[in-house]
Write a structure and sequence with these properties.
Radius of gyration: 25 Å
Number of strands: 2
Helix content: 55-70%
Largest sheet: 2 strands, antiparallel
Strand content: under 5%
Number of helices: 11
Distance between the termini: 53 Å
Structural class: mainly alpha
Order of helices and strands: HHHHHHEEHHHHH
Shape: globular
Length: 351
Amino acid sequence: MKRPVPVVLTAVLLGLLAAFQLLIVVLMVITGVVVLHKGLPGSGPNAPLPPSFLPGLFFGMSVFAAAIAVWLIFTLIGLVRMRLWARYSVLVIAGLMAAFGGLLMVSSFAIPFLAPAMPTAANQPTVDPHVMRGMFFVFGAIYALVTAIGVALLVYFNQATTRALFLLNTPVNLDPPNTSTGRVRPTAVTVISWIYLVSGPLCLVYLFLPFPAFFLGFVLYGTAAHALYLFFGGLVFAIGYGLLRLHNWARLTVFALFAICPIQMVMFLTPWGRHQFQAYMDAANAFNEHLLGAQAVQPNIAMSPGAIVFFCVLGMAGYGVVLWLLHRHRAAFTPAPPAPPMPASVEPVAG
């Protein structure tokens, strides 16, 4: 079967992304070995982190990058073979590219206007504001390209002709859909569910980092922060599985969690909320100082009320797209009507 040119180009793109992830694996392993034997500046006996933490962090990052590479390679193989599951995998990858690429693109273009002063640390050389703005616009252009590729993949692999091509190599299955409602799962719900399934384990990564947690204006440290990351990581993964099985409780939970977004934004606008967020950033910067061996970290350029409101509104807009799709396909989360009874067969009359 002749494969369309967009499918071939997508396979090439997946191969390049997999090669990039494997390069990251090699670099992380080499860095971990070097740190294990030689250490980093500020990693003496009085350091706030144990000597084994940084090598473990780099080795853990290499495992994570290797898992992504394996995912991309398997998707590439399935795409070359025109497997239906590979189409869904490409849609998930494209959804991640479009979502995160779009958020980073808008943020990169907006930061120079939201933080025109571009402050620097007192003991570090001053950076030319024009250079900084140029760097943000370059990053924005790169993220715009990533977003455009993600949107293009979502559009192409969601077309009826493309779906038909992948269905040609799929054996006919007359069994009812493997969902809780007995209905076919919409493609948009499949993509959203897998994004949640991937995002859940990412929250669990913070269980192994000494980062604090910030939630509704409160800064949590140590065990409390890890418990919060564990809770939301497990909840996000459970929502992803529930959406995959078309459980209505999962869809309603996504709507309920949206209430946190406006509460966070209102809290950021209060003096107490900004003070608490600054305390959270100071604690996170203390970890970065030790990790990077730096004596000072650049101040947060997005601490102004305008920047905070912008990022909150941007996050709510992305969340709103998810809510709109789940509302649009709400019928899929209701039980399917029973199949009509088969007509009674007529006995042939003898003679």
